Hints:
The protein is of the alpha+beta class. Among the domains are: 85-138, no CATH class; 155-261, Alpha-Beta Plaits (2-Layer Sandwich); 276-386, Trna Endonuclease, Chain: A, domain 1, CATH 3.40.1350. The protein is 37% helix and 22% strand. It contains 13 helices and 17 strands. It has helices spanning 28-40, 46-56, 62-75, 85-99, 106-114, 124-131, 150-165, 180-189, 219-232, 276-285, 332-342, 359-362, 378-386; strands spanning 9-12, 17-20, 77-79, 140-143, 169-176, 193-200, 203-209, 238-244, 253-258, 288-289, 292-296, 301-303, 306-308, 312-316, 321-327, 350-355, 368-372. The strands form 4 sheets. It has a 7-stranded mixed β-sheet. The chain has a 6-stranded mixed β-sheet with strand order 10-11-14-15-16-17, covered by helices on one side. A two-stranded antiparallel ribbon has the order 3-4. Helix 12 links the parallel strand 16 (350-355) and strand 17. Helix 3 (62-75) packs across helix 7 (150-165). The longest helix has 16 residues, at 150-165. The protein starts with 8 loop residues before the first strand and ends in a 7-residue tail after the last helix.
Amino acid sequence: MLTKEQRVYQWESRSSSISSDRLEDDCLPRLSRAIATYRAKIGEHLGRVRDATRSALKGLRPDRIEPVIKLLDEVSTYDWPRGRRQAERRVKVFEAAGRQHPVVDRDTARSLLGAAFDPIPQRHDEIVALLYADYPEFHRLLAFPANYSAAQLRADYDLAQAQALLYSATRVAVDARADFKHILQYARLSRLLHGIERVDREGYRLIFDGPNSVLRHTHAYGVDFAKFLAALVQARDWQMTAEIVLRKGWRPLTFSLSASDGFRSRVPAPALFDSDLEEIFARKFGEERHGWRLRREAAILEAGRTLVVPDFVFTHEDGTEVVLEIVGYWTPEYLKEKFAKLATVNAPNLIVAVRKALAVQAGALPATVLPFSTGLLLRDLIPRLEAFRPPRP
């Protein structure tokens, strides 16, 4: 991730809006030269690699050069002496030289170095690098990914700049219409607290806050938002609005992003289905049947102090909504936790599909039970769905 000093943005005072920097198509040739430089410099020190890359990026807007280099460093593999040994050997050389101060003879200097290091380089700059090999400037480039492209670097840059702008976020709201389980999972992993409100029949608004914000805004709190964004961009059908305060006392600026902006990250995209059982059932039911429309993970339910995203939501053309949670075959510990959570779900129209061996246990839940053997049968499901519809006048 970029540092606060490496972020590049544009803001409009009249509209109180702000946007993060994105690279244009004509930047790609320079990015390709920068990548080629890293590959050609394997075995060199980090300082030399960076200097050569700055030359390769000549012509790129100056404020973009260091962020690009930082991202290239992040995908590279560097090697350096670990632990205290390197510092101890350096001190040993300095103590020995101090006893013979001043050391002006080349052979004496090499002898002192030889007592701690072997072999001794010939060039002066290499001797300095040997002494300070544990300093970042002298870390040695060990490897660079063979398949990393200019297009990937551009995508990493665009996302990293958006993430860096969120370091100064005080509030983030996400309107989502899909992939709720994915979004909530990474919100928890990013240590973000959130409030949830339903926007309409198909969407929710998630108001994100960080644990540090309870007392005050901190950089760590903004980093939590940045980590979350890397996961959010892999979801579908979302819009994000963040309040950005660049300096204390300044008025907030609005930073807006959406799924249509085309950001990408290395966080795995959410799988369309969690299991073959769900996929087979969805394919069998289709998008619509008997007036019922099927949507995947399209609701968020309260379950005590936690949240549940059911596997499927059925919406009838008369407005009736029913949620379906499928409990497959898992460990006893998982089943115990799952049933405990479902027992506290606040959803009047809930169907829980379980294997027949678990039907009696599931009968205690505040839900309609749908037993199955190997797969869910539509002839068993449809009557249970219809039972939730209001009686016809």
